[in-house]
Amino acid sequence: MTFLKTFSRFIAITVSLLVGFAIGTAVVFDYEMSTFKPWGWASGDDPIVLNCYGEEFGEEYLADPVQYWAEKGYNVAFIQQERIGDLCESEFIDGFIILKKQSFHDGSTIAVTKRRVMLGRIRAATIYFNPGSYRLDHVIAHELGHAFGFTHLPEEGHIMHPEFGKMGPGFWVP
Fold it and tell me: What's the CA gap between 168 and 91, in Å, rounded?
């Protein structure tokens, strides 16, 4: 009888935890999808941009997009063009926006930004560029926008438009 009571409590707690996790995940997902800037870096913590893409992705490609966001109040501490040890082997490094090369085989993906968020603050971001896509107008600025915490905005001409052909240099907060 005691075993059954203990087992049923264990099942009840496990189910409660799973339901709580599912609800929490759904709330966070909804928040990210319905908020233009759901996350941000901690105040005063400007991230370091680390180029792990390779030599062909020179600093000249980053200068204008970094300046674009600096004019809007989103700065980087500095750009590290040369690899440092095995840092490029990591997916995330706290305080860094890492630039990497990755081939996407779906035919339409140009780049993807992943963020690591803890307690409502961005801790790290990694931008994966399809080879050569960093040369396309607005792509770096768009992906840096994701690294700074912005989501997509379906307004044509906006830098955060989800479709490359409809993205432009504009930026406004809806």
Answer: 29
**Using CA atoms, how far apart are residues 140 and 167, in angstroms rounded to an integer?**
12
Within 13 Å and on the Cβ side, how many CA atoms surround 172? 7
pLDDT in tens, 75-113: 999 999 998 889 999 999 999 999 999 999 888 899 999
Q: What is the DSSP string of 119-161?
A: TTEEEEEEEEE-TTGGGSTTHHHHHHHHHTT------TTBTT-
Q: How far apart are CA 165 and CA 158, in angstroms?
A: 11
Residue 57: Cβ within 10 Å count: 21
Burial of 65 (0-12, 13-18, 19+ CB in 10 A): buried
Write out the two tokens for 126.
């990694």
Q: Which two tokens stand for residue 71?
A: 């004019």
- Predicted TM-score of the model (pTM): 0.83
Alpha-carbon distance 36 to 50, whole Å?
Answer: 25
Positive or negative, the Cα torsion across 128, 133, 139, 144? Answer: positive
Answer for the pair 105, 55: CB distance below 8 angstroms, yes or no: no
**C-alpha to C-alpha distance for 155 and 110, rounded to whole angstroms:** 19
d(CA 84, CA 62): 19
